[in-house]
Amino acid sequence: MGGENEEGEMMLVQRISGIYERISKLGSLSPSEEVDGLFTELVHLCIPVVAIEVCELSPEVQAMRTKLIKLCGEAEGLLECHYSDLLASFDNPLDHLELFPYYNNYVKLSQLEYTLLARHAPAPARVAFVGSGPLPLSSIVLAARHVPASAQIDNYDVDAAANERARRLVRGDGGVPGGARLEFHTADVMDVTLALRGYDVVFLAALVGVEREEKARVVEHLARHMAPGAVLVARSAHGARAFLYPVVDPAEDLKGFEVLTVHHPADEVINSVIVARKPTHGGVHPPAPAVLRPCKRCGMVQGFHHLGHESII
Fold this sequence. Notes:
Layout: H1 2-24, H2 33-46, H3 59-88, H4 103-118, E1 126-130, H5 137-145, E2 152-157, H6 160-169, E3 181-186, E4 201-204, H7 212-225, E5 231-236, E6 258-263, E7 272-277, E8 290-294, E9 301-305
Parallel strand pairs: 1-2, 1-4, 2-3, 4-5, 6-8
Antiparallel strand pairs: 5-7, 6-7, 8-9
Helix pairs in contact: 1-2, 1-3, 3-6, 4-5
Organism: Zingiber officinale (Ginger)
InterPro entries: Nicotian_synth (IPR004298)
Keywords: S-adenosyl-L-methionine, Transferase
């Protein structure tokens, strides 16, 4: 069985590499029939639960993967800009969010994140979302469906144009009808310090820090400046989905936080979700978090604790 699995992994990597070569030769990643077709093919390849450890792949494949993730991020940004402009053309943009082809994925991801968060923290009054982009669906869904209407969600993005697009969707006083208030700040989170102490929860978008070292610096900054007891919700990827988004290793990349939960979806929700808390004491001695991970040998999902002890989830 091991040989068959390795052969299957090699074939998968070869197919992904082929799509990367085709994408990298495109003159533009703006939405088009060709661009949409290639990325749809890529996503369909990566979504099935495949027991592949990207950290064990060759340096050449690792380099290709990093470049592919950056291309995915660029294409995702252009797609969001396109639909943000389209939605802004309506009198009530928030009434037409379903026009975005992946809106239901955001709804499901937001439901997953808030369900996991609610197991470990009370309803937040102040939330930060880092890396909100031109189409801040995560924050909009969070405001409309999950956090209290009295809450405030501060969105941070380094791109002023992205924030301007986002503001056009949430008009007036920034409130989502029946939901929380949204604010948009143009800033690199690495330059945000005192404000971070005011948040109960900080959401970290998957594409904030594509390179592992960059992600680690962001997490270290958050650990230094978030309030003790505040919760971090970080998006990651697992298995073949790690060719679409960066991986956050709970054991290595979240120093300064107690990891509470790691969840790897097996459906069309691509991102894994990690919930962690900044300790209220001086050191970090985390309880072993429940983890969902596909078993390499049998392909089934098994539960185990972060420190290696078996558990029932």
